[in-house]
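Exam prep: given the inputs below (a chain plus cobalamin), describe the expected output before reading on.
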Amino acid sequence: MRVSLLYPGIIGKGWASIGQGMDSGWISHGLAMLSACAKRAGHDVDLLDLRALRGWEHLREEVLQRKPDVVAVTIMSVDYNPAMQALEVVREADPTIITMVGGAHVSIQPQELVDSALVDHVFLGEAEESFAEALDALDRGDPVPRVVPGTHPDLDALPFADRELFLEEWRRQGYTPDSPEAPFAEELPGPFVTVIAGRGCIYNCSYCQPAERQIFGRRVRRRSVDDVMAELVMLRDTYGFNSLMFHDDCLTEDRDWVEAFCTAYRDAGFTQPFFCQSRADIIVKNEDMVALMAAVGLKGYFIGFESGSDRVLRFIRKGTTRRQNLEAARICRRYGIAIWANYMLGLPTETKAEVLETISMLKEIDPDYYSPAFYTPHPGSDLYDYCVERGLSLIRDHDSYRRNPDEAKIKGVDYAWLAEALTESQRRTPCNSARRMAKRLWRRYARPKRAVEKLWEMISPKAVTAEGGR
Ligand code: B12
Ligand code: SF4
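Solution:
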């Protein structure tokens, strides 16, 4: 079968935007895995990445030129509109092309896709096995059901994500990125890659679950350390990566795995800095693990602090406390680990006083990176149901499933005030700014040779003349 996988993620940075930050600079591991499995089964696979194209007419031309048997689209809730429009273009260009959809939104709200005449097959959950089997069946002329259930494959038995699927297409469309994926933090120099070591999450945050479990199942599955190391060796040989990021929902939840990984990473001679996601409670309860990770290259944690109010943290079932949030930040600072602070404003039931608690918490945390969101109810989560049942959701269109804080999401929330709170949440105290400035200067000039050079520049008469002459 000739298969074109389609990535519709233009809601963030729009058309022709490859290389621009996370939204347009990162691969989709879902599609990269499907590609690897379909290629292993002998199918021809390429990519239509809307982020690399110039518009709908360009997509139409590509479809007509490539003449795929199958177009298979990945859909997050926020991508629904461009995904459906892309399917419309495909249908109109060539009605004989078989269309397939899968991904987070499809697994969580399949009916919306089952009801669409633009879609031939709806895939639920993880699809490495079911997708390759469906393509084989079509090749043989066998029927494929309209709704195809997923499986929870043994992750070590899967091939590595097919990054070349994206890189080849980006090059084909005239992009020449100097990093396989876009680095996003000063601690992570390019070439930069993202990796996934496992699937699923044992936690139960109400703004997220049970949607995650619906896709990945109840049990967390992690690849063996050997399998992840083999992929890292391949990535080092192929791309010479200088830094990486783990996408796992919570890599640090299994400390035995983390310890084995840290040892293997160091023993294999890797020193490349990396970021991963963690939680405040894990950091506080496992300081020795944090120290070990920092010693082998951990340079930053994404932490879902979410709120500075213990009542709100209980309401969203975060399983952490304000105290743990603050202590986790202190631990990160102790080990030189940058903090990427995820937090939400405008949660249902949240009072202005509680928003101020979040702001005061952030002043104490002084994160390296602020990642705020206006709370956005995502389908499939318990908090989404809570909002819908009480008529609280103001979301009328899939485009609004972005968490970016620029529009009203929840009835009754004072968004004008919240916008000011958002700005204030990211304002550093004079003391924190001074501390950061001192640290930056220290980093820049602390090396003895650089300090002597700087001193010489300052006192040498030639330097003074040169300065004056400018
Ligand atoms: C990395 C990541 C990102 C990255 C990269 C996204 C990307 N290019 O894939 C970035 C930072 C850009 C990102 C952004 C956002 N993300 Co995000 N992200 C993730 C994360 C942590 C990992 C994604 C991943 O690679 N998973 C592993 C792969 C293997 O799983 P998968 O993609 O689901 O694919 C499997 C199946 O779904 C299925 N499948 C997928 N596609 C298809 C297509 C076909 C045809 C078939 C047959 C099968 C199939 O088979 C795949 C293999 O098993 C997930 C959480 C998670 N654990 O998945 C959230 C997650 C996908 N993101 C989410 C959200 C909400 C967002 C944002 C909207 C947040 C925001 N800023 O507002 C944006 C939207 C980006 C956009 N399109 O503009 C939600 C989606 C919820 C939903 N209902 O759609 C998730 C589930 C997190 C959560 N629990 O809330 N994200
Ligand atoms: S928000 Fe993060 S920690 Fe909480 S359930 Fe979802 S993936 Fe797990």
